[in-house]
Specification:
Elements: E1 2-4, E2 11-13, E3 23-25, E4 31-34, H1 43-64, H2 68-78, H3 82-88, H4 90-93, H5 98-107, H6 112-121, E5 124-128, H7 142-154, E6 159-164, H8 171-174, H9 182-207, E7 215-219, H10 232-247, E8 252-254, H11 256-262, H12 278-284, E9 288-290, H13 312-321, H14 328-340
Helix pairs in contact: 1-2, 1-9, 2-9, 5-7, 9-10
């Protein structure tokens, strides 16, 4: 069951003359407004709002004597709470919204047939869509948690997948095209990059509190990214998050062909070449599986050596032939992480592991 980013109200810094009833003031003193974008997928305006908030957090940190990392972490945590998500996603959580309609199907006695179809076919929730300017995740909301609990009552392997960290603008590759002077632009983009990734990490960490919940990350390239030049607090937070992924395991679904088509620069290499990132994931010990992203859209060919290897089989074969998967143990570990995090329909109650092959 998929939910697309966009059609939401990304937080913005409140102007001084904003009506008080339009403003939310956080305990750190940051004043925010939540106004819908004219176009649901207007990533340019959403990204500008993210940059303004990142700059405001830095100003508040300086005036309060606290570190930017401390305030940014507090803000990212607040964005996981119902109060924030109700404002960011009014079409999801408002009266007559999509969540209410799903709740009606799950609770009402008049939707028995549709509810039976859902519980027999739906194996998880998926957040997808362009994340530039939209790092926010609605699945940490208590109402979504209740929906997950409903499905997990009959299927313990019901899971959540979050599209995160595919192509987040960062200073080394995104300075050109902005109106600020280059030095100022790099600083602001760096602040926005760290804030964006912090929000992603906070949301996924919040979901991971349920240790039994199968959880996967779509893409996750940014979590294997080089962290040189970033703040000490951010680097520490990233290291802690990587450990969380390892302990889960919470695998990232890497899509090599898609990355070659879409990523104009690499988050894994300081020289910004468009290279594959699988070897970086494996060297960091991060759980990772190979996927196709949009099989049928990207020209994923048959393997030149093994003509029967297509789609996902091609991705694995290509990685082996090009020296990214260098030994059998790494390949086995990838398969184990795949099996441990899979979303599947439950078998009968007598099944020991509660899953079907």
């Amino acid at each position: 069951m998929g939910f697309k980013r966009g059609d939401c109200c990304p937080p913005d810094v409140a102007p001084n003359d904003a009506p008080s009833d339009d403003v939310v003031t956080l305990k750190d003193g940051l004043r925010l407004t939540f106004k819908p974008l004219r176009i649901a997928s207007d990533t340019t305006e959403a990204y500008e709002r993210l940059k303004r908030v990142a700059k405001a957090l830095a100003v508040h940190a300086k005036s309060s004597g606290r570190s930017v990392d401390d305030i940014a972490a507090s803000y990212a945590g607040w964005l996981c709470k119902d109060e924030a998500l109700n404002r960011i996603f009014p079409t999801l959580f408002g009266s007559g919204g999509l969540v209410e309609k799903v709740e009606q199907v799950l609770k009402s006695g008049s939707h028995t047939r549709l509810r039976k179809i859902w519980t027999s076919l739906v194996v998880g929730l998926d957040l997808f869509g362009d994340e530039v300017g939209f790092p926010y995740c609605p699945f940490t909301h208590s109402r979504f948690r209740a929906i997950v609990s409903f499905f997990r009552h009959t299927n313990p392997r019901f899971g959540i997948r979050v599209h995160a960290g595919e192509n987040v603008p960062r200073p080394t590759s995104a300075v050109a095209g902005f109106s600020e002077q280059e030095g100022t632009a790099a600083k602001v983009i760096g602040q926005a990059y760290e804030l964006h990734v912090r929000i992603l990490m906070a949301s996924i960490s919040d979901l991971a509190k349920d240790a039994q919940l199968p959880l996967r990350i779509g893409h996750g390239v940014v979590f294997a990214a080089d962290t040189s030049g970033l703040s000490d607090g951010f680097v520490a937070a990233m290291e802690s998050f990587r450990n969380l992924l390892k302990d889960g395991p919470i695998p990232c679904e890497l899509n090599p062909t898609s990355n070659r088509m879409l990523l104009l620069d690499s988050h894994a290499a300081p020289d910004r070449r468009n290279i594959r990132t699988l070897s970086k994931f494996l060297s960091l010990g991060l759980p990772v599986v190979l996927c196709t992203d949009d099989d049928g859209v990207w020209p994923i060919p048959a393997c030149g050596v093994h003509r029967r290897h297509r789609s996902v089989a091609y991705e694995y074969c290509h990685a082996i032939l090009h020296g990214e998967i260098t030994d059998v143990d790494k390949l086995k570990r990838m398969f184990r992480d795949t099996m441990a995090s899979r979303f599947v329909l439950a078998k009968s109650k007598g099944d020991n592991n509660g899953t079907s092959e």
